[in-house]
């Protein structure tokens, strides 16, 4: 609480100068003005962009109190296009991701809603307590994923092998020339408000042509949005992700020297399969 008993605005703790927020800053930072009705402004952006869910209903961000009792969050969005949104960092960042990658978000929700409907049908209308492999994998994407885009498949090979020296040290000078990382998971963004070395994303890897990196950022993000929305299927599993220690990305943390990358508690060796 502030000295006059008013809760502090949760948006004030966001540091828009951080490199991981750069793709969202142009639209997100103005929403942090104390006089801004950020939910209304986000709805304006959504209307202007023509955002729709998989049922072709307009996406609209509403107060959490509008979520009917007994109806699940994902099912409600899938049925109505209305996204229950609380006054907190978690939901604020979720709304930012909807604006940045609307096709991926709509596809995730379509898969979630379909799986919930399937479980309800199998259980006689009672949603199963066990979420299952698909919904677990969808939740990980939604909450904790980073989209790693590169024109060099060798970088992906090194990342999958947990060859951190190749990924972050040997390729440091060219990392931002032929690779970029977009945060997608809004829980990751919330964690990064107070960043620490061990924050690790579930990376989704996207191969592109070298020409991609000459495009404007808005075109690159739209391209990635379209590609990944087409890649996400009911066959999604946790094994489809690759660990990515975010503070290892060149320029995302200070003091990235040899000792920094030698920390085995963060930059872990890949487990051998028995």
Poorly predicted runs are: 1-6
Strand content: 5-15%
Helix percentage: 40-55%
Mass-distribution shape: globular
Main sheet?
Answer: 4 strands, mixed
How many DSSP E strands?
A: 6
Mean pLDDT: 92
- What is the CA-CA span between the terminal residues? 53 Å
The SSE order reads HHEHEHHHEHHHEHEHEH
Map the helices and strands.
Layout: H1 22-28, H2 38-49, E1 60-63, H3 73-80, E2 82-85, H4 89-100, H5 102-122, H6 132-144, E3 145-150, H7 153-160, H8 164-170, H9 175-178, E4 179-183, H10 186-191, E5 200-207, H11 217-231, E6 242-245, H12 258-261
Parallel strand pairs: 1-2, 3-5
Antiparallel strand pairs: 3-4, 5-6
Helix pairs in contact: 2-4, 3-5, 4-5, 5-6, 5-11
InterPro entries: DUF3025 (IPR021390)
Pfam family, one: DUF3025
Organism: Actimicrobium antarcticum
Task: Describe the 3D structure.
InterPro entries: DUF3025. This is DUF3025 domain-containing protein. It holds the Pfam family DUF3025. 43% of the residues lie in helices and 11% in strands. The radius of gyration is 20 Å and the shape is globular. α3 (73-80) links the parallel β1 and β2 (82-85). It folds into two domains: 18-124, no CATH class; 141-261, no CATH class. The chain has helices at residues 22-28, 38-49, 73-80, 89-100, 102-122, 132-144, 153-160, 164-170, 175-178, 186-191, 217-231, 258-261; strands at 60-63, 82-85, 145-150, 179-183, 200-207, 242-245. Residues 1-6 have low confidence and may be disordered. It is α/β, with parallel strands linked by helices.
């Amino acid at each position: 609480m502030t000295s006059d008993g008013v809760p502090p605005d949760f948006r004030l703790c966001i540091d828009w100068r951080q490199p991981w927020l750069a793709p969202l800053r142009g639209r997100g930072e103005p929403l942090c003005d104390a006089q801004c009705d950020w939910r209304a402004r986000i709805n304006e952006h959504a209307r202007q962009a023509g955002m729709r869910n998989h049922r072709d209903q307009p996406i609209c961000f509403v107060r959490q109190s509008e979520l009917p009792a007994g109806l699940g969050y994902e099912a409600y969005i899938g049925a109505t296009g209305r996204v229950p949104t609380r006054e907190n960092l978690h939901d604020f960042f979720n709304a930012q991701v909807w604006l940045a990658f609307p096709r991926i978000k709509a596809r995730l929700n379509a898969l979630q809603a379909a799986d919930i409907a399937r479980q309800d049908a199998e259980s006689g209308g009672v949603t199963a307590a066990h979420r299952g492999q698909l919904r677990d994998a969808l939740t990980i994407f939604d909450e904790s994923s980073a989209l790693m885009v590169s024109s060099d498949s060798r970088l992906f090979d090194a990342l999958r092998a947990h060859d951190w020296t190749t990924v972050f040290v040997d390729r440091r000078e060219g990392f931002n020339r032929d690779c970029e990382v977009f945060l997608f998971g809004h829980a990751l963004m919330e964690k990064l408000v107070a960043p620490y070395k061990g924050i690790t994303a579930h990376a989704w890897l996207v191969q592109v042509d070298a020409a991609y990196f000459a495009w404007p950022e808005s075109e690159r993000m739209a391209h990635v949005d379209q590609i990944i929305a087409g890649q996400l299927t009911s066959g999604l599993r946790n094994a489809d992700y690759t660990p990515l220690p975010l503070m290892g990305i060149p320029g995302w943390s200070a003091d990235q020297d040899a000792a920094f990358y030698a920390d085995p508690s963060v930059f872990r060796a890949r487990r051998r399969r028995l």
